């Protein structure tokens, strides 16, 4: 896959940028908590990032389907680099609301970047190598879940959170430098130019016509609010209170990243015909992660649970993103990806904001037990038509006319023939 020049540039830039993405949560948690902030304060700061994603991601999807996606991504990288560098030079007594405002800007850049990135891969990779490209990307991005927190832990422990934010900002500039060299095909326009509102409605219609996509997005809107948001907020608090060292947060995030790498490699070598079943079952280990955080007095057991959760989430992600890329027409893809982000994250700011007060009322364990239960309830999605296969019922080809492919026993099987596989999804 890395023999394709444009994909190699895209892969390199995003691999490095992903390291910065994983430095940020450690740096911002240390920044808030070390300056006397509470779990509620951290929840508000993280909520600002998610809120800006929800507010702007549909706009980002429309823009990415109208303009060259690399240009949209470059603009987003400039914005995020500037915000990260502002955090690096900010005074130590900066208020929680000011931190939330800068984090809001970072989320805004991400809102434009994510749909463009989700849609550009099929533009620079042949259709029969799409899953392979997603697999290579997956392993690299999840490796960043190991490298990024490790770097962040060293930085905040030795030179402080300012340097950690500076390194985060520099990774966006590296991403920018690779994006400007990609020779992206021109945007293919279908029919006469329409308004931005009509473009957005076309993306909504594309999701509505695919019930399995809509069902997964509705489930994840609840899952991210009730399960993921509390884990993100409570993880650094539990690490500090139970194990006595906030820097161990990097160890847990690295363990999750290591599991995701293993999950990506596993999905590269095996893709079941009933991709939806495998994907939704992949969420089950997340329940173990939440229960370990709730009850385990042993650090090694929490680390193991994080590792297993990483494997599971990547099995889901691999099957999900490749299925969406194959089922949705390319000229609508950025808009559908943007709706993925908006619907999935729509309630997450509320989850961040409520985690502190709810935890104060009922305790950490009760919050995490409910989070684990919601992770298990994802299996209900499988009753929706097409959800078990992650494919619109009756569709034998992908949205661009290529036969659907299935990965089994290490080879990518397609209708015309057999292609050696080293693929998955990110």
Any overview of this molecule?
This protein has 426 residues and is an all-alpha fold. Helix content is 73%, strand content 2%. The chain has 15 helices and 3 strands. The chain has helices at residues 5-34, 39-66, 69-89, 96-124, 130-158, 161-179, 196-208, 211-243, 249-269, 275-281, 284-295, 299-327, 333-345, 348-362, 364-376, and strands spanning 406-408, 411-413, 418-420. The chain has a 3-stranded antiparallel sheet, with no helix packed on it. α2 (39-66) packs antiparallel against α13, α3 packs antiparallel against α6 (161-179) and α10 runs antiparallel to α12 (299-327). The longest helix has 33 residues, at 211-243. The chain is globular.
What is the element layout, followed by pairings?
Elements: H1 5-34, H2 39-66, H3 69-89, H4 96-124, H5 130-158, H6 161-179, H7 196-208, H8 211-243, H9 249-269, H10 275-281, H11 284-295, H12 299-327, H13 333-345, H14 348-362, H15 364-376, E1 406-408, E2 411-413, E3 418-420
Antiparallel strand pairs: 1-2, 2-3
> Helices and strands, in N-to-C order?
HHHHHHHHHHHHHHHEEE
Q: Helix share of residues?
A: over 70%
Rg, alpha carbons: 20 Å
Summing up helix and strand content along with how strands pair, one would put the structural category as mainly alpha
In whole angstroms, the N-to-C terminal distance is: 14 Å
Proportion of beta-strand residues:
under 5%
Q: State the strand order across the main sheet.
A: 1-2-3
Sketch the major β-sheet.
3 strands, antiparallel
Mean pLDDT: 82
Number of strands: 3
Question: Total number of helical segments?
Answer: 15
Q: How would you sum up the global shape?
A: globular
Q: Unreliable stretches, pLDDT < 50, 5 or more residues? A: 403-426
């Amino acid at each position: 896959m890395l023999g394709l020049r444009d994909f190699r540039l895209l892969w390199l830039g995003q691999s490095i940028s992903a390291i910065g993405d994983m430095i940020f949560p450690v740096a911002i948690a240390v920044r808030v908590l070390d300056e006397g902030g509470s779990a509620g304060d951290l929840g508000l700061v993280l909520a600002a990032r998610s809120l800006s994603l929800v507010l702007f991601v549909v706009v980002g999807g429309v823009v990415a389907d109208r303009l060259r996606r690399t240009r949209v991504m470059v603009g987003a990288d400039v914005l995020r680099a500037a915000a990260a560098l502002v955090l690096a030079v900010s005074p130590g007594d900066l208020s929680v609301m000011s931190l939330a405002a800068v984090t809001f800007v970072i989320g805004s850049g991400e809102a434009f970047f994510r749909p463009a990135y989700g849609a550009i891969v099929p533009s620079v990779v042949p259709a029969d190598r799409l899953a392979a490209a997603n697999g290579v990307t997956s392993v690299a991005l999840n490796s960043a879940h190991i490298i990024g927190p490790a770097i962040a832990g060293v930085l905040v422990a030795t030179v402080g959170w300012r340097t950690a934010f500076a390194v985060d900002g520099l990774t966006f500039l590296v991403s920018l430098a690779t994006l400007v060299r990609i020779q992206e095909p021109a945007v293919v326009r279908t029919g006469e130019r329409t308004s931005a509102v009509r473009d957005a409605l076309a993306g909504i219609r594309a999701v509505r016509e695919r019930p399995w996509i809509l069902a997964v997005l509705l489930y994840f809107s609840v899952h991210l609010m009730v399960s993921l948001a509390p884990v993100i907020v409570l993880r650094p608090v539990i690490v500090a209170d139970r194990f006595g060292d906030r820097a161990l947060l990097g160890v847990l995030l690295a363990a999750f990243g290591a599991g995701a790498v293993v999950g990506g490699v596993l999905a590269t070598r095996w893709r079941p015909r009933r991709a939806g079943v495998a994907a939704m079952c992949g969420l089950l280990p997340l329940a173990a992660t939440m229960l370990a955080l709730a009850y385990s007095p042993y650090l090694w057991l929490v680390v193991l649970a994080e590792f297993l959760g990483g494997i599971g989430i990547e099995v889901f992600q691999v099957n999900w993103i490749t299925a969406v890329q194959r089922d949705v027409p390319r000229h609508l893809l950025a808009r559908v990806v943007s709706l993925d982000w908006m619907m999935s994250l729509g309630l997450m700011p509320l989850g961040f904001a409520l985690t502190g007060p709810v935890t104060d009322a009922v305790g950490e364990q009760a919050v995490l037990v409910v989070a684990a239960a919601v992770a298990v309830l994802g299996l209900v999605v499988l009753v929706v038509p097409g959800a078990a296969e992650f494919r619109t019922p009756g569709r034998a080809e992908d949205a661009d006319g290529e036969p659907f492919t299935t990965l089994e026993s290490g080879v990518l099987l397609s209708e015309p023939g057999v292609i050696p596989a080293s693929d998955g999804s990110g």
